[in-house]
Structure formats: C-alpha cells, structure tokens
Amino acid sequence: MRFIIVTGMSGAGKSTALKMLEDAGYFCVDNLPVQLVPKLGELLIVPGTEINKIALGMDIRSGQGIDDLEQSLNELDKMKIKYEVLFLEASDEVLIKRYKETRRSHPLAGGGRVDEGIRRERGKLAFLKKRADYLVDTSRMLTRELRSELHKIFVENKDYKNIYITVLSFGFKYGLPSDADLVFDVRFLPNPYYIDNLRAKNGNDPEVRDYVMSSDTARCFLEKLTDMVRFLIPNYVSEGKTQLVIAIGCTGGKHRSVTLAGALYRELAGEEQDYGIKIEHRDIEKDAVTKGN
Questions:
Q1: Is 148 labelled a binding residue?
Q2: Where do the domains of the chain lie?
Q3: Which residue range or ranges hold the RapZ C-terminal domain (predicted)?
C-alpha cells in the first residue's frame, strides 16, 4: 500500500510527477477537495480493495482549502493511514522564467507580478515543505531527468537523500556560474590547447582525457576532490540543502574542466548512491579553437 501526496510550487513539475506515477500504475487524483483527503486514504485500508497505490496532487489551486490540509493530514495520522509527501521545489528565478516562457499567470498573482505570487505561495505551502518525505528541486532538471528520479523513488523504491547534484564544467573567460555552490579552478593542470593534435578536441575525447589525467597532479586532485564531495553530501543533506552545483572551471571550459568534471561525475555516479546526479558542460561548444584554453 502506498499513498503519495504530490505537491509543491506551481511550475515546479507536479503535472510531470503525476503523469509519471500514473504510467507506473498509481491511481492519480488531482486537486481533490481537501475535506475528502481522509476518505481517499480510507480506500487503501478497505479489505479486498484493488487500489493499493494512490497519488494525490495538491497545490495552491485548492484555494482556501490548502489551509485546512494540515488538519486533514493530522486525521490521516490519527487513523494510522501511512502517506508520503513529495514536495517539488524550484528557485524563484527558474519559476519566473518558466511562467514567462509559457505566458501563464501565477494563481496567486492576480493581475500583479509573478514574483509576488511566488512569495505568497511559498508562505502558504511552508507547512507542507516541512512535512515532506521527498524534497526534489527541479531548478536544473529536464523533464526526463525528473521522471527518472521519481521512478527511482516510487517504482524502484530506492532511498533518496533529497538532494540533486549537478557537476558543471565552465570557462572562466565566460564568467562564473551564478548558481554554483562549490567552484574549483583547474587551470593549474597541463593544458591540451598547446598540443596541436588536441587543440580542436574537447575533454570528452579520450585523447584529451588521457593527456590531462596522465598528470600525477590531476589524479591527486581528483582523489582529494572526490573524497571531499563525498564528505560534504551527507552534511548538506542534514542541513536541508536540496540542490548542489559543483562547478569546475578552466580558461575556456573546453579541455581541462570538461575532463575533471567528467571524472568526478563518473566517480560519484558509478557508486551505489541515493541522490540524483547529472553532468553539464556549459561552455564546451562556445569556441571551436580559443587561445589560452
């Protein structure tokens, strides 16, 4: 028996989550009147019922009813009906961008600004975020990546530490990534730019990877960096962090940073892990050939 309450910020991916759960065999209901939530939960404890997996979508569109949801959840607790809360989160900047791209208005903005609607929504949903069993930040996720993470949690039943890690390569010449949490400069490593047959290649090519990682310094750096990140992840989780961006930079973001970002990603993704992780190369295509990469 599994009862999932899918909620979170408008524009953070609730519709995608419900569709994925429906595809996985969950009986999905969106924005049921809050007063009926305990009744829906009772379906799961009726002897002989064929429904054993329910996903209930709840968001700010429930209007004033959202204020009564905490009481309904308390009723489920009293009836000893087990439920899990999936809270989908995203940064204000990302939510605003999504609303602008879709030309939708925020349900709490009225005729005003989207950012004000988002601020009000965060206040109204704060109690749900505190009760969340799974807190997934979709700020840097593609739709397919979100579906993949939810599949791990609700289909494969893997543990999830409520944190999603992005390993990001970049070039300092194009500026620091604005959302980076940790930034590492690998411009001290041997530079493939000065090798004629490597200049036009990038850090995803075996020849470049082999050249960079042939350095004892590069191997030592990767070992120490991986050890530090492994130490940091559970500590970030315990502090409630849901999104971790690890940025690794060289001059142009094409050779050294791509190599080390790829190596760190493989170290973290290749082990048994209970967090989401992906890799991005921000500047890898910006120069065909650039001096000083």
A1: no
A2: 2-154, 164-281
A3: 164-285
